[in-house]
Amino acid sequence: MRLVIVTGMSGAGKTSALKMLEDMGFYCVDNLPIPLVEKFAELTLSNQGGIKDAALGIDIRSGDELSALNRIFDEWSRSRVPYEILFLDAGSETLIKRYKESRRIHPLAGEGRIDSGIEKERLKLAFLKEEADYIIDTSKLLTKELKAELEKIFMANESYKNLYITILSFGFKYGIPSDADLVFDVRFLPNPYYVDELRPKTGEDREVRDYVMQNGTAAIFLDKLYDMLEFLIPGYVLEGKNQRVIAIGCTGGKHRSVTIAKAVYGKLKAHGEFGLKIEHRDIDKDNKRKKE
């Protein structure tokens, strides 16, 4: 029996997560009044009604009653109630964008600005994030990627680290990604752009990869980069970071950066100790410009 408290920032995907858990066989209840939470747990854990797993959605709509959760969690810990907390988060800019697109009003913003409501919500939910067993930052996650993470945790029972890393290739001529935490410039590597038969290809193609890696310089760079990341990543985990973007750039974001990003992704994927994805932001932009 699993009892999961699903909570987090408004607009970060809590409702979607509950629907996904329901599809996985969880009995889900959203926005239950806090005074009923203990009774709900008692009924579900006693296996009444044949409920195997349950998920309870709790968020800022509970108002001042939220603080009562501290007492409830303390009691559950003493009584060895097997509960888990899943916290959905996202960057403030992402949340503002989502609110504007949906034309919804933030529950704490009132007639004020959305960003002020978000900051108030962060403060009120801080204790839940600190207690969370799983923190998923949905800022850059597609719906299918969020579903994959939840399946990993609640169906495959795989060990889960709260850190989620995005390896992002890009072109400097299109600007450095605003959300990048680490930026590496690989414009010192051999450039396939100046080889006629390689120019239309990308770092996804073996011929381009072989050209970029040809003289051993790229391999040396990758070894040094791996050493740095192996040093940094455990520190990010200890500090409670839940989202890091490693950006790798070349001139157009089509050849060298894609090749190196794929190599880094392949190396980190072998660890399996954190969420990982790869994106090629500018891989098709040159083609699109030519068509225009």
Question: What descriptors fit this protein?
Answer:
single chain; 292 residues; alpha/beta; Rossmann fold; 2 domains; 5-stranded parallel β-sheet; 4-stranded parallel β-sheet; 9 strands; elongated
Question: Can you describe what's shown?
Answer:
GTP binds at residues 59-62. Residues 1-157 form the RapZ-like N-terminal domain. With 292 residues, this protein is α/β, with parallel strands linked by helices. It has two domains: 2-154, P-loop containing nucleotide triphosphate hydrolases (Rossmann fold, 3-Layer(aba) Sandwich), CATH 3.40.50; 164-291, no CATH class. Helices cover 42% and strands 18% of the residues. It has ten helices and nine strands. It has helices at 14-23, 37-45, 68-79, 92-102, 114-131, 143-154, 206-212, 217-238, 256-269, 285-291, and strands spanning 2-8, 27-30, 53-57, 83-89, 134-137, 164-171, 182-185, 243-250, 275-280. It is elongated.
Largest beta-sheet details: 5 strands, parallel
The number of domains: 2
Classify the helix fraction into a percent range: 40-55%
Number of strands: 9
The CATH superfamily of the largest domain is P-loop containing nucleotide triphosphate hydrolases
Our Rg estimate from Cα atoms comes to 23 Å
* CATH top level class name of the largest domain: Alpha Beta
| Name of the CATH architecture of the largest domain | 3-Layer(aba) Sandwich
Anisotropy-based shape: elongated
Q: Which segments are poorly predicted (pLDDT under 50) over 5 or more consecutive residues?
A: none
Percent strand: 15-25%
Q: Which strand order does the major sheet show?
A: 2-3-1-4-5
Summing up helix and strand content along with how strands pair, one would put the structural category as alpha/beta
Organism: Hungatella hominis
Domain RapZ C-terminal: 164-284
Pfam family, one: RapZ-like_N
Binding site for ATP: 8-15
